[in-house]
TrEMBL record:
<keyword id="KW-0479">Metal-binding</keyword>
<comment type="function">
    <text>Lyase that catalyzes the C1-decarboxylation of 4-hydroxy-3-methoxy-5-(all-trans-polyprenyl)benzoic acid into 2-methoxy-6-(all-trans-polyprenyl)phenol during ubiquinone biosynthesis.</text>
</comment>
<comment type="subunit">
    <text>Component of a multi-subunit COQ enzyme complex.</text>
</comment>
<dbReference type="Pfam" id="PF05019">
    <property type="entry name" value="Coq4"/>
</dbReference>
<feature type="binding site">
    <location>
        <position position="133"/>
    </location>
    <ligand>
        <name>Zn(2+)</name>
    </ligand>
</feature>
<protein>
    <recommendedName>
        <fullName>Ubiquinone biosynthesis protein COQ4 homolog, mitochondrial</fullName>
        <ecNumber>4.1.1.130</ecNumber>
    </recommendedName>
</protein>
<keyword id="KW-0496">Mitochondrion</keyword>
<keyword id="KW-0472">Membrane</keyword>
<comment type="pathway">
    <text>Cofactor biosynthesis; ubiquinone biosynthesis.</text>
</comment>
<feature type="binding site">
    <location>
        <position position="134"/>
    </location>
    <ligand>
        <name>Zn(2+)</name>
    </ligand>
</feature>
<keyword id="KW-0862">Zinc</keyword>
<dbReference type="GO" id="GO:0120539">
    <property type="term" value="F:4-hydroxy-3-methoxy-5-polyprenylbenzoate decarboxylase activity"/>
</dbReference>
<dbReference type="GO" id="GO:0031314">
    <property type="term" value="C:extrinsic component of mitochondrial inner membrane"/>
</dbReference>
<keyword id="KW-0999">Mitochondrion inner membrane</keyword>
<dbReference type="GO" id="GO:0008270">
    <property type="term" value="F:zinc ion binding"/>
</dbReference>
<feature type="binding site">
    <location>
        <position position="137"/>
    </location>
    <ligand>
        <name>Zn(2+)</name>
    </ligand>
</feature>
<feature type="binding site">
    <location>
        <position position="149"/>
    </location>
    <ligand>
        <name>Zn(2+)</name>
    </ligand>
</feature>
Amino acid sequence: MSLGRYAPLYPTHVPLNPLQKGAVALLSAAGALLRPARADLVAAVGETTGEWLLPSIRDRMRRDPLGAQILAERPRVTNATIELCRTMPPGSFGAAYARFMGDRRFQADERPPVRFVDDEELAYVMCRAREVHDFWHVLFDCHTNVFGELALKGLEFVQTGLPMTGLAVLGAQYRLPPADRELLQRHYLPWALRAGNRCEDLMSIYYERHFEEDLERVRQEHRIIPAPQPPQHLRFRGPQPPKPPRA
């Protein structure tokens, strides 16, 4: 008899019972510690440790008119989204997003699919959080170096409470040299706490409707505080640990 559920609930679903899911969480966590650039392992940890929080995020979205509309319409962020944003006017949120992705040669389609969430709607919530991550980079002006990624993970933890975001910050910062860790703790993480509490619910923003709008206007509308520039005497230096993946 199979230990898993009887049938997948959505195309990428891998049904697991609690014992199997615990094993995936432990093995993926161990693998992610050894190879932090493995986005698939980090994604597996996020899904197997954070599934219990997804209903609260979903319910919060349901109470918001735009959040409810996102759940009903289920927009996806794909490479076609990037191409659309390339046509947006200069200075717009969409143009800034297209430039962000192009400068780094990022592909919107490269993120790992949701596999271990045992509810089709909650799987979309996890997928949405994963896909709008780069929108947050643009809106909060967070670099994709290790400091920018960790600061944004801290902000995500404030906003969502998902354990993997907090674990990423706790684990990765202690692989930094002491001066760099001081920079993160004194400047970036306090910003993440302040900005995460001040801005609107990031999961209930219909980003696709703002592509043509001026970037600064979008930031003001949603009470977004861009990330600070570190002071010159504390700018990071020396070899850096692998930055958290974009999962």
